[in-house]
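Q: Hi! First time doing this. I have a protein sequence and I read that you can turn it into a structure. Is that right? Here it is:
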Amino acid sequence: MSARIYHPNLSSEDIEARAYQLKALKNILHSSTLLVLPTGMGKTPIELMAVADKLYELPHKKVIFLAPTNPLLAQHYKDAKKFLNISQESIIMINGGINWEKRQNMAQSAKLILATPQVIRNDVIRGSLSLADCSLMIIDEAHHASGKHAMAQVADLYLNQSDEGLLLGATASPGSTDKAIINLINRIGSSNIFSMQKSNPMIKPYVSQLESIIITMELPQKLEDLAAPLVQWLEEMVEQLRRVGVYLHKGVITTTGLNDSMRRANFLIERKNQHGWNSMKLIADSIRVLQLINLITTQGVISTRNYIRRTISQFENGEKKLSRLVNKKEFITLNEEISNMQEIHNKMEKVVELVREQIILDNQSRIIVFASLRDSVKNIAITLNGIEGINAVPFIGQSSRGTDEGMSQKKQILTLNDFREGKLNVLVATSVGEEGLDIPSADRVIFYEPVASEIRTIQRRGRTGRHRSGYVFVLVSKNTKDEGVRFAASAKENRMYRILNKVKNQKRLSFNSNNSQNQLKNFKIILNDSEISVDSYILSEENRLKKEPKEQQLEEKVDNELKEIKIPTNNLTISQKLRPDGQSGLEEFNEDNDINPQ
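A: Yes, that's right. Below is the predicted 3D structure, encoded as structure tokens:
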């Protein structure tokens, strides 16, 4: 059902009304709220509607909008300028590059202040900014608000200084444990949680069909042979740890098991047990060897070679504790064998195949490749740029690591603009591309490896299918860390939603609509040229989208049958079948038509 939203502080009547967004907004304007919606389901429009209403109701107050990174902040600033019908001069974006005295002057006349949390924290502590006159604080990507993170510190300051102001924390992924979610809602002072999964009838019509395809590959025999001496070396060290009761985990040796052993070794050291320090050395060496094994089996030759070179350089520059590693026969032999070796991991070959395949299907396609390591990102970009018709660029974070320089904020923003405009057609990104940034929807997203974090998995999947259907390909090397990580990620994501509902029920944070009948009184819904109340529209949509159980079961059965259909990826004969019915190309989604920036 097509409808439009009108509000005095919104710049256009051409904003599509989505009932679930208005239902979420009703929660937010009623009490401080943790908003949890899947990536791509429109958290940003909800945030901006809340801003519009608060500034209309309390024009003498301010609103502060926090985002964890400058590129994401710049995106929100652009959206605010576009959608809010308030003085453009009253919307400001401040960052650490602006002198604090100038920031203070800018903030005095501002109504909406967009900033990174570090800037707000520093200005409040300095006394150049007060939070007492704020009616609403928005914390975007709120899962950062924990521990000593600046986002959590600003939340503390806001809750202390503002008596009646509301706080909205928005995220796609609040955590996968009771403790993480409870700590988050406590830290941001939430008295309410609003969440919806993609299976909810109210949200399901707006969810793009997103097919995840797991590609499991046999590890090349040469890589298995290179890893074998390292595996034996690791097992010998861990066996020593088992004999003294430090390593207790059964099955495959993991980083989790070694970290758990480190706690036991620390306990022995505190008790001045003779096995303590020796165990700690074995654990440190085991972690490094396990890292080498995982690199060679899941990333390939080049990433492993770069790691070895950095390790040797650190040793030569004074880190003598690395002598146990760099002087070991297995380490020396591996270094010699791969010193001049070309990349032989079949993941690289598969990435090339998947990218070339999509470009042949549609030469206007946009593709994103995610990899966890910068070494892999740069190697993938170099390899892809050797293909005709491919213009790939690395997209990494701002921090520099030794001689490895990061990307400046300006370069990050320019790169995203080039990707949107088609000057680049492949973005090869580390985790910096995962979160919140409105990277233009891709026709294809490729995971070079699965990731264990439910937050990162949700964010990465959200890079495709944001405005249309798409495919996500996940590359998994058989009998390696990849397989364990893949199942861990899926389990964590499912557990996150179960725990979120559990916490909501236990804390009795579910929304009481009886207390907020007039919260959306400033909003109007224009439906078929007639005006109706928001509450009426929400109720009518809930009834319309409610499905009979048999119909729901039939649809799920069809969906499950479709998921069992395998899509071949080893040839280029599947042409148009790779694009789901009704899927549009990126060229149809320009900035002017993009009303759902989140």
